Amino acid sequence: MNLGVFTLLWALISGASSQDYYEYDQYFPLSMYGRSPICAPECNCPGNYPSAMYCDELKLKSVPMVPPGIKYLYLRHNQIDHINEKAFENVTADLQWLILDHNLLENSKIKGKIFSKLKQLKKLHINYNNLTESVGPLPKTLVDLQLTNNKITKLGSLEGLVNLTFIHLQHNQLKDDGISAAFKGLKSLEYLDLSFNQMTKLPSSLPTSLLTLYLDNNKINNIPDEYFKGFKGLQYLRLSHNDLADSGIPGNAFNVSSLLELDLSYNKLKSIPTVNENLENYYLEVNKLEKFDVKSFCKILGPLSYSKIKHLRLDGNNISQTDLPPDMYECLRVANEITLN
Ligand SMILES: *[C@@H]1O[C@H](CO)[C@@H](O)[C@H](O)[C@H]1NC(C)=O
Ligand SMILES: *[C@@H]1O[C@H](CO)[C@@H](O)[C@H](O)[C@H]1NC(C)=O
Ligand SMILES: *[C@@H]1O[C@H](CO)[C@@H](O)[C@H](O)[C@H]1NC(C)=O
Ligand SMILES: *[C@@H]1O[C@H](CO)[C@@H](O)[C@H](O)[C@H]1NC(C)=O
Ligand SMILES: *[C@@H]1O[C@H](CO)[C@@H](O)[C@H](O)[C@H]1NC(C)=O
């Protein structure tokens, strides 16, 4: 039996869900690798998962000694306020996940090119710290970057991070000039969360590979014409709790055929922006809507031409049952929930 088949079998027997947290090789006894990572004395490296080192909630003020072989390092809920240049010197070829959530890190106390020296790093989480800008330079292997709940006002360059797929930047203090073209050229980017920041417009040059874009809870008042034109796979778009009025939304702004969910709730819209017929969930609650125009959902009506909307929320507006035109049901044929006041 070759190793791959054995691994798969074992993964099935031992429960596939563990795949999220473990790598296949941890199912094999250490002897197969001939090297047993030792653990930092204050931390915990579980016997069945020896390439992970857990140092959570230990009141640590700095990063402990990280022995060779450690791939997954958890340092959550400590008081770490600096990282020395040598902290990871013995795991530059090993470390894949570095989780530093809930510490006291500031940019000025992260010394040197610490992260870009980590040649296998895929996940970097520094949520809930005291960062005022993004960290960097970052290694090209990075897939998942999380810097939420800091005080970030400025993003550095993310250029060349060809595998970066997930970026979480919600709950920071990003303004338009702090972002400029930070996301340009991230050709693998699928998930971008910029919610709860202070942006007044959409970032320029977002990668068209995005599937999910969250921009809710900002101050965005305008969507440039054809902004989403090149986006072939965008499925989830949230723009709720912004300053969008009718004048800031060009007619074809949301005519994106891949879009399944659009959240425009808590804005200042008076009419319903036109959407593509493939849209399934449309949130428009708490705006200033006064009329319901079937043309917002169906350009033409016909046996094969109808809206795929399943859920439509219109509550918190000035639209009641009597405002709904009779031909609405011809268009919203598969809607199973329309919420009015
Ligand atoms: C790295 O390994 C060397 C040799 O074992 C050791 O002297 C050094 O303290 C280690 N560095 C860290 C940060 O653990
Ligand atoms: C770090 O952030 C915490 C929580 O936001 C705050 O209480 C503390 O004063 C900050 N420390 C520094 C050194 O900025
Ligand atoms: C990007 O990911 C692919 C597929 O996982 C991998 O083959 C490639 O080496 C990665 N590139 C970098 C720079 O890490
Ligand atoms: C939406 O875009 C398609 C092309 O992608 C176009 O054929 C269609 O007319 C547009 N719909 C509206 C309502 O403008
Ligand atoms: C709601 O719309 C009706 C007419 O459709 C209008 O008479 C009324 O003033 C509007 N109420 C508000 C709060 O805008």
From TrEMBL:
Residues 1-18 form the signal peptide. Pfam families: LRR_4, LRR_8, LRRNT. Belongs to the small leucine-rich proteoglycan (SLRP) family. SLRP class II subfamily. PROSITE patterns: LRR (PS51450). The keyword Secreted applies. It is found in: Secreted, Extracellular space, Extracellular matrix. GO terms for cellular component: extracellular space. GO terms for molecular function: collagen binding. Keywords: Disulfide bond, Extracellular matrix, Glycoprotein, Leucine-rich repeat, Proteoglycan, Repeat, Secreted, Signal, Sulfation. This is Lumican. Residues 38-72 form the LRRNT domain. It comes from the Eukaryota. Binds to laminin. InterPro entries: Leu-rich_rpt (IPR001611), Leu-rich_rpt_4 (IPR025875), Leu-rich_rpt_typical-subtyp (IPR003591), LRR_dom_sf (IPR032675), LRRNT (IPR000372), SLRP (IPR050333).
